[in-house]
Amino acid sequence: MGLFSSPAKVYKPAAEVDLGPDSDEHYISPNVRAPRVAGLLVKLLAWVLEMPVVGWIVLSVLKRDNLVYKLVSDAEIPEPPLFTSIHTWQEIAEQNVRLTKPDLSPAERVQEAVVCLPAHLPEPAAALADPAPAGFRRWTVRDFHRAYSAGQTTPVMVARRFLAAVKECSGPDLNMALFISCDADDVMRQAEDSTRRYQQGAPLSAMDGVLVAVKDELDCLPYPTTGGTRWLGAARRCEADAACVAQLRACGAVMAGKANMHELGAGTSGINPHHGSTRNPYCLARVSGGSSGGSAAAVCAGLCPVALGADGGGSVRMPAALCGVVGFKPTAGRLSNAGLLPLNWTVGMPGILAATVEDALIAYAAVVDQGKPGPLQPQLNLPLLTCTRSMPNIRLAKYAKWFDDSSEDIRSLCGKALQMLRAQYGWETVDVTVPEIEEMRLAHYVTMGSECTASLAKYLDNMSKSEVGWDVRIGLSAYRSFSSRDYLNAQRLRCRQMYFHDRIFETADAIVAPMTGVTAYPLQEDALGTGELDYINGAALVRYSIAGNFLGLPAITMPVGYDRGGLPVGLQFIGRPWSEATLLHLAYAMQEACAAREHRRKPKVHFDLLPREDYYP
């Protein structure tokens, strides 16, 4: 036990933990009491933490107060460490799926996905004439493809509208900071190539000419990959597209530029002092979330129906929920990490942000990695969304104490969403206990921080601290304080959580929970130049995201309504390994149920790249 430690927790063997609804396992809500810190106070704290002796003392006190010592560092844990979250192939009986051949090209997989989609419903003429909130509908991949194929518009015309919208978003009136880099000449070159293919009657796929934003954590030529910094792009040369980007290019997609992100992915707000803080299209005075905030906000604002993000601790799903779009993180290993900044080796991977569940499916089919057949590259099932309504006997596991640890509006909306699924589909909610939620969050934090500093050491050890944002400097100081014992104990907790979740999935098809504990919170002016430390809101945002990354499980979030302030609320499904098809079915069912109950609300900032007065599906 360390000098600043409290009595350590002694864990009983995982097999002895009761996972039933009446378990006596204690639910620990995050022990966060620190006030929000920004501006000059952030600078002062960064300086203090970087002092050799004083910094160590302050960090020790902070870790004690946040229970890192008690629940992780000094804890007695009977299980051995589990160092990765990669899952071997498990034969699971998924309902209503289409099995794809392993040797298909990305464009061929996209075609397979399109076949799985319901018929494209025509939009009411009233909605075309009056794009009011009651008639608001996001343009989808199929909308763009149909408009291009019918000659109603061209990728070049859409690209011009896109570039004008980006310019408007970046101007002083909106100042949304959606993109770090956007090369207009490159966008137009791709759009011209796509337009020629349509004119020749030979588009590569339904994604040909469709704009896709790429989080600046993934390599995408001709841009440097900055990771949201002002130094990494020069220190690490980008020589080729990331695997996911290359697959989208093979489908004809137009890479729209590098979307903004929280610096080094080390935060949940999307506040970036170097490239501007991404603002939420539903309310410009609110955060977009992070770290894939630029990707989420770009989709929300109508600039693209699909964007790529990266998810190491909810970084795709959290901003998707705050911005009212779909966020999808497949099973670890389902997508290739090639060309992704190696910030978090065992918890991070690419992810998808999309306007609709259908668009998420199309993008997923394009970027899935089928290059290494074998036990770590299982067969690819695509969900037949035409048959979602005929899926019986779906069981959703719900841990009530965890589910309810959110704001009143979120708790109410997510609860009503489950009631709708039961009423419309007959799907059952099963009460369970997911033990040691806070312990898992802290273990994930230790893991993510340790891996981040190890990955970036060759850069950080040879550069000036002034190159790094103040809030991230504080984070890096905390990351450097973790010991090998901290890391090993975190992996022992990973082993326990893998066991718990495997047991739960023996009786349930997915775990259901809110995506975040709060909706988008205010973006404070004093944080724009320094970043901020808002541990209360930060802990609420990550509360439901950790299992997807720490355990490598697939997870998807979709909007289910709006709080009393008009801000989006997201619900999340977490699945067993390799159950992406089932999760997409669940998300599609939820999307359709919500559409029948309540119209989507149009964001305050939204661009119609397909003008409604000109386009009739």
UniProtKB/TrEMBL annotation:
Record-linked InterPro entries: Amidase, Amidase_dom, AS_sf
Domain Amidase per the UniProt entry, residue ranges: 179-584
Name of this chain's protein: Amidase domain-containing protein
Organism taxonomic ancestry: Eukaryota, Viridiplantae, Streptophyta, Embryophyta, Tracheophyta
